[in-house]
């Protein structure tokens, strides 16, 4: 473990997670106050002369504007917003700034907020102010929750871009894909997942094809999604199980799971790795790529792929960052990290070595902005959501695994001890959690892992669908819903 | 560089190298229970002894560094006798379960007893000393088979950090480790590293002997770390999973989901046929019926009336073709659940 080899560890989390016990500094901040905490750390770094002035001068711009906003975020002011002791903010800032190399690792706790994009910018500010970018073991490292989120983005499973983030509104890129695919392409970027459901309700989108996703359990405000799915003229779902979403479909297509097909996944460090078929799919199930190819050919598109290797070759031809990657190299060399522009390129273990993609790193002044919904008299507690170790996402795989579901068969909503005492809730009691959008019934786990006023649930269990409660207010830029903060009330049922 | 002689051959190695590493470099095999790459060295099992210099002193090679001009022998009657004695002591307490033990064929105790001719075992007075522990749903612990190498302990402390296993009485009278269920996170790394059959995944019981298993390297289906896994397959079934020690991402490490959460593959709830909704019910259909129906409906939807949700769990190739299809039909409404 890195910690044992002498590394220092700073943990910031609303919950006292296991890692917190190893931490040199643990900052248990109120949910939804990330930007304030980050600004507070930057404030200390600047005030105490710990900033990397050379890096700021040579590699960045916009420092002054950022610094003037951060001025008011003194540790004491930030303590008032976040609940983290001013002394801990100072200690964390010093530890981070004085380290030779310091990396920041984060996941949805940063992004699933209405100011998620701002929080990511604030993290970048913190890294740039100390020059912790473009060298090994440093930087800003978002950890991906699903095994091929990176790859899905790289492959253009995003409304505005083809593979490798080439814009659909970019004339040259579009011309290249039109030529390669032999079709005319739409120049207007499409809608994001969350916007799609609104558009369905407006009657604009009529047909939805879902491959391997279960939005009926994973999206904020499920009731809204359910309404949208019912409004569709035609819904196709391709999956390995009859998920909640698939059960609503007009046609369900049986897909092969990871062990039943070959291809590549791209991990969170941009490493493209081989996935190898070990067994046959059950019954008539087929690999996704086979199903899509068959369907394209029914539509007269005339696709010819003998196997995943053919598809990958086409990807590499059309995608500069993947151009140097091939199945032969992946078999011989193991994974390769993009950008890998040519066959003799060794791949890129870390980005931004000498320059940022936009040239100079841009500081963005970020003001703290409270969550869209804060606790009040009627809904006095904050609900924050996430996962537990034994399950994954909407549970469609892990809940079908005997050992995992035997060990953790049901949701245990974490409620703080003092809140529980006040409400007469004991460990294992059945409780009702309600928000402005709905209610769920669930077993309570009384704990001190969450602070008073905060409760925690996962989204693994369809019996207690937490996203009935969550707020679907979006971050204006990333369109990510605020799954990490909403106001709820608790009652004991039995 | 330090130069030394092993079995009469000269070799040059870096100063910090151990005798065991230097011997391996020359291709000489030295048995060991208690050392493994990436873990601290304790030199306690006694299997890796070699003779150094003319004095013939027996030394543990796994944690003795090389010295300039050292003369080392890795095989001699004296060395073999010492190794046989270690094995004799171990097998005296070891149940003769090889007929059904899941480790059979990949067990170091078996391999070394075979190699050094430890046979004619007398089991007449044998009694199991420790109770079988199968309280958790992931793996069984049978400490009667333990060789007290401590690899599980060091894996749990040094790699996982959970510190859920510890040896009892470390030292000359060491006892098998005890296991603290409440701090264990069931990563299963102790199971993978155990050189004998003391720790056995429950899912593989009775599903195939080690030599029957086909081993296929792939990537974990769960989170974005992208750990390398080795799937062990018999009769078109994945019966066991271990971390891929050759993966640069996880070097054999795993979490509970990657290690034990693969049996969803054979869940009876898997979809095995296309389904079409008829009179409100989803009923089985052929591929041709299902795809023809979808093609007809996709053709009716004009451009942006169509939207697609791709998958952060499908492969790059799957996702590439998916967005190619939706875009080829005139719509850029393609996304996946990255934001959620
Ligand atoms: S399963 Fe993992 S956490 Fe549990 S004892 Fe083994 S190594 Fe330690
Ligand atoms: S259980 Fe296995 S790994 Fe642990 S000490 Fe015993 S033999 Fe070694």
SSE arrangement:
The complex is a heterodimer of chains A (494) and B (340).
Chain A: E1 10-12, E2 25-27, H1 34-47, H2 53-59, E3 60-61, H3 63-70, H4 75-82, H5 86-98, E4 103-106, H6 108-111, H7 116-129, E5 139-142, H8 149-154, H9 171-181, H10 193-201, E6 207-211, H11 215-218, H12 222-231, E7 234-239, E8 251-254, E9 263-266, E10 271-275, H13 288-298, H14 308-318, H15 327-333, E11 336-337, E12 361-362, E13 381-386, H16 402-407, E14 412-416, H17 417-423, E15 430-435, E16 438-447, E17 454-458, E18 486-492
Parallel strand pairs in A: 1-2, 3-12, 4-5, 6-7, 7-8, 13-17, 14-16
Antiparallel strand pairs in A: 9-10, 10-11, 13-18, 14-17, 15-16, 15-18
Helix pairs in contact in A: 1-4, 1-5, 1-7, 4-5, 10-12
Chain B: E1 2-6, E2 9-13, H1 19-25, E3 49-52, E4 57-60, E5 71-73, H2 77-92, H3 108-115, E6 139-141, H4 151-160, E7 165-168, E8 175-179, H5 189-193, E9 199-201, E10 214-219, E11 228-234, E12 237-243, H6 256-260, E13 275-278, E14 281-284, H7 287-300, E15 306-309, H8 316-328, E16 334-335
Parallel strand pairs in B: 1-5, 15-16
Antiparallel strand pairs in B: 1-2, 3-4, 3-5, 6-9, 7-8, 10-11, 11-12, 13-14
The structure holds iron/sulfur cluster (SF4) (2 copies).
What structural class do you assign from the helix and strand content of chain B?
alpha+beta
Number of domains of chain A: 3
The main sheet of chain A orders its strands as: 13-17-14-16-15-18
Largest protein interface, residues of each chain: A-B, 141 and 105 residues
Q: Helix content range of the residues of chain A, please?
A: 25-40%
Structural class by SSE content of chain A: alpha/beta
Bound molecules: iron/sulfur cluster
Rg measurement of chain B, Å:
27 Å
User: How would you characterize the largest beta sheet of chain A?
Assistant: 6 strands, mixed, barrel
Radius of gyration of chain A: 24 Å
Distance, first to last CA of chain B: 54 Å
* Largest sheet features of chain B: 5 strands, mixed
Total helices of chain A: the number is 17
Strand order within the widest beta sheet of chain B:
2-1-5-3-4
Number of helices of chain B: 8
Shape of chain B: elongated
CATH topology of the largest domain in chain A: Rossmann fold
Unreliable sequence segments of chain B: none
């Amino acid at each position: 473990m890195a910690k044992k080899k002498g590394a220092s560890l700073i943990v910031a989390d609303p919950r006292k997670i296991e890692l917190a016990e190893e931490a040199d500094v643990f900052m248990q901040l109120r949910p939804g106050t990330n930007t304030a905490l980050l600004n507070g750390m930057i404030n200390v770094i600047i005030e105490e002369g710990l900033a990397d002035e050379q890096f700021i001068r040579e590699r960045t711009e916009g420092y002054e504007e950022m610094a003037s906003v951060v001025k008011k975020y003194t540790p004491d002011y930030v303590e008032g917003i976040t609940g983290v002791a001013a002394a801990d903010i100072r200690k964390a800032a010093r530890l981070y700034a004085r380290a030779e190399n310091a990396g920041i690792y984060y996941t949805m706790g940063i992004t699933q907020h209405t100011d998620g994009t701002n929080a990511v910018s604030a993290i970048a500010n913190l890294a740039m102010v100390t020059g912790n970018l473009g060298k090994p073991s440093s930087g800003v490292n978002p950890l991906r929750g699903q095994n091929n989120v990176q790859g899905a983005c790289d492959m253009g499973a995003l409304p505005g871009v083809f593979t490798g983030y080439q814009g659909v509104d970019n004339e040259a890129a579009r011309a290249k894909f039109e030529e390669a695919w032999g079709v005319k392409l739409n120049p207007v970027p499409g809608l994001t997942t969350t916007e799609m459901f609104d558009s369905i309700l407006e009657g604009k989108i009529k047909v939805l094809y879902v491959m391997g996703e279960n939005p009926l359990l994973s999206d904020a405000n499920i009731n809204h999604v359910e309404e949208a799915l019912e409004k569709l003229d035609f819904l196709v779902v391709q999956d390995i199980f009859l998920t909640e979403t698939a059960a609503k479909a007009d046609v369900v297509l049986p897909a092969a799971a990871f062990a039943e097909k070959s291809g590549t996944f791209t991990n969170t460090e941009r490493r493209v790795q081989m996935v190898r078929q070990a067994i046959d799919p059950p019954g008539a199930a087929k690999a996704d790529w086979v199903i899509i190819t068959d369907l394209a050919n029914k539509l007269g598109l005339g696709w010819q792929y003998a196997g995943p290797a053919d598809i990958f070759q086409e990807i590499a031809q059309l995608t500069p960052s993947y151009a140097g990657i091939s199945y032969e190299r992946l078999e011989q060399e193991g994974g390769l990290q993009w950008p890998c522009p040519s066959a003799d390129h060794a791949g890129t273990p870390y980005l931004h070595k000498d320059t940022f993609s936009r040239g100079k790193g841009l500081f963005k002044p970020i003001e703290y902005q409270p969550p869209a919904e804060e606790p009040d008299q009627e809904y006095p507690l904050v609900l924050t959501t996430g996962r537990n170790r034994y399950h994954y996402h909407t549970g469609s795989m892990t809940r079908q695994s005997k050992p995992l579901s035997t060990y953790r068969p049901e949701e245990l909503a974490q409620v703080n001890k003092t809140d529980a005492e006040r409400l007469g809730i004991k460990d294992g009691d059945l409780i009702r959690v309600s928000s402005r959008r709905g209610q769920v019934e669930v077993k309570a786990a009384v704990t001190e892992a969450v602070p008073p006023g905060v409760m925690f649930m996962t989204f693994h269990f369809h019996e207690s669908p937490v996203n009935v409660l969550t707020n679907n207010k979006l971050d204006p830029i990333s369109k990510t819903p605020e799954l990490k903060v909403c106001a709820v009330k608790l009652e004991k049922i039995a | 560089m330090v130069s030394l002689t092993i079995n009469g051959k000269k070799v040059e190695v870096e100063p910090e190298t151990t005798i065991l590493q230097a011997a391996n470099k020359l291709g000489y095999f030295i048995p060991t229970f208690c050392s493994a790459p990436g873990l601290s060295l304790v030199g306690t099992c006694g299997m890796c002894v070699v003779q150094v210099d003319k004095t013939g002193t027996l030394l543990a090679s796994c944690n003795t560094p090389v010295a300039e001009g050292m003369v080392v022998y890795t095989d001699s009657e004296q060395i073999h006798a010492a190794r046989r004695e270690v094995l004799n002591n171990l097998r005296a307490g070891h149940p003769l379960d090889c007929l059904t033990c899941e480790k059979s064929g990949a067990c170091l105790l078996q391999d070394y007893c075979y190699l050094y001719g430890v046979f004619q075992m007398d089991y007449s007075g044998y009694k199991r000393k420790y109770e079988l522990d199968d309280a958790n749903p992931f793996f069984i612990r049978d400490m009667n088979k333990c060789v007290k190498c401590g690899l599980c302990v060091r894996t749990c402390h040094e790699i996982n950090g959970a510190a859920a296993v510890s040896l009892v009485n470390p030292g000359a009278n060491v006892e098998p480790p005890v296991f603290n269920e409440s701090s264990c996170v069931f990563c299963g790394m102790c199971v993978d590293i155990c050189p004998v059959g003391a720790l056995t995944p429950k899912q593989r019981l009775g599903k195939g002997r080690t030599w029957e298993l086909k081993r296929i390297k792939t990537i974990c289906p769960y989170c974005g770390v992208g750990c390398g896994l080795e799937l062990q397959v018999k009769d078109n079934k994945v019966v066991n999973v271990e971390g891929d020690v050759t993966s640069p991402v996880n070097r054999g490490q795993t979490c509970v989901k990657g290690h034990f959460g693969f049996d969803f593959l054979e869940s009876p709830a898997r979809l095995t046929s296309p389904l079409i909704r008829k009179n409100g019910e989803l009923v089985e259909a052929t591929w041709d019926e299902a795809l023809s129906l979808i093609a007809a409906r996709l053709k009716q939807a004009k451009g942006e009336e169509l939207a697609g949700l791709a998958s952060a769990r499908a492969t790059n190739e799957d996702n590439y073709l998916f967005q190619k299809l939706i875009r080829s039909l005139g719509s850029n409404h393609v996304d996946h659940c990255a934001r959620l």
